[in-house]
Amino acid sequence: MAPNETDDTTTAGEVEEPRAGRRRAARYIVPVTVMGVAAATIGLVPALADSGDPDLPDITAAQLIEKIAQSDVERLSGTVKITTDLGLPDLGGLESGLLSGAAGGEGGSSADPSGRLTELASGTHTLRVAADGPDRQKLSLLENAAEYSLIHNGKDVWGYDSASNEVYHATVDEADTKERSAQRPPATPKDFAEEALKAVDDTTSVKVDGTAQVAGRDAYRLVVEPKQSGSTVGAISIAVDHETGMPLKFTLTPAGGGSAVVDVGFTKVSFDRPDASTFRFTPPKGAKVTEDTEQDRAHGGFGGKPERGPKPEEDLAKGLDGLRMLGEGWNTVATFDTGTGAGLPTEEAGGDLGGFLGSLGDQVKGDFGKGTVFSTRLVNALITEDGTVYVGTVTKDALVKAAEAGK
Fold first, then answer.
1. Which fold, 49-298?
2. Beta partners for 321?
3. For residue 256, which of 378, 401, 362 has the smallest C-alpha distance?
4. What digits encode the pLDDT tens for the residues 317-348?
5. Can you tell me the distance from the alpha carbon of 384 to that of 368, in angstroms, rounded to the nearest whole number?
6. How far apart are alpha carbons 139 and 137 in whole angstroms?
7. Region 320-406: CATH code
């Protein structure tokens, strides 16, 4: 196995110098998005294993990140295995109802992708993926004796749930396609890697740590680690294809140890052009077809046409009252006011609901007053008694200190 400069620790200052505000917003948005879609479920499964130690030419971390940036793979097909283990509490079946509501909603369609893709945020899933340029992609979520497929072919977007025989159809233009691609949940190693590398700054150690073989292909292993203490992120490992520069596997391990929080990688992959028939879809006989509506557009549904304008972090700041970032680097904490003027209902005021919510968190107090900390293996969130929220990929102690400093 080639050493590949395992002791070459590179700071992002040597790699790139993006604006501080953009880095910090990106670091916040990614984990909070994951927390939001996963907060109703639990998964605990082993991480996907690598095999082989191919002998590859030496490369520096800066060169490998540049290789990822220059990767121009547009055609591929393969199978992806994704595992998410945030270590959430067992909600006693409540998660099933919440997810079904998100997927279809009252009177909605179980084939609506805006809800179905949230399932990737918990447990282990197998996906079949295919792409042929920016106008044709297909993602299939394989389930027990059923399959959910999302197909983009030109101006048409189809969602099909074989279990219910329901179809969701939308039409999009080129601008919509680009915007939807930016908004959809990450589902491939490349998606996760691109988001993780946005968080790289001078508080980060980046190095090449040997090689691996993923899906039968030789790859370099890029390791990203926080230099600061207090972060819940232990390390991020990205297996980068030696030939194409495309990430083949992404693994995020928590500072607290144990299994990976997120582990996503190809088990099979081909960079040949998929057959055109892969992206053709005709609703099966008897299927219930739901067309996207003006209401979908107004609420930014998958097939809708949202207004052009602010970037996602700017939209987030507008949607949350006075979003601010506290601290720096991996210890950045986001805070905002819920606008309610009050925190969670107490057991006295909220009855069983107040007691249930309180049991899911830890009670804390400080200069900010009193509050409840809700924890996962990656994201911690503090809700104070006056309705202020503090959230970040930091430990509970670091979160409380940030809340005290921000008061």
1. outer membrane lipoprotein receptor (LolB), chain A (2.50.20)
2. 337
3. 378
4. 454 557 889 988 899 999 988 776 666 655 44
5. 7
6. 7
7. 3.30.310
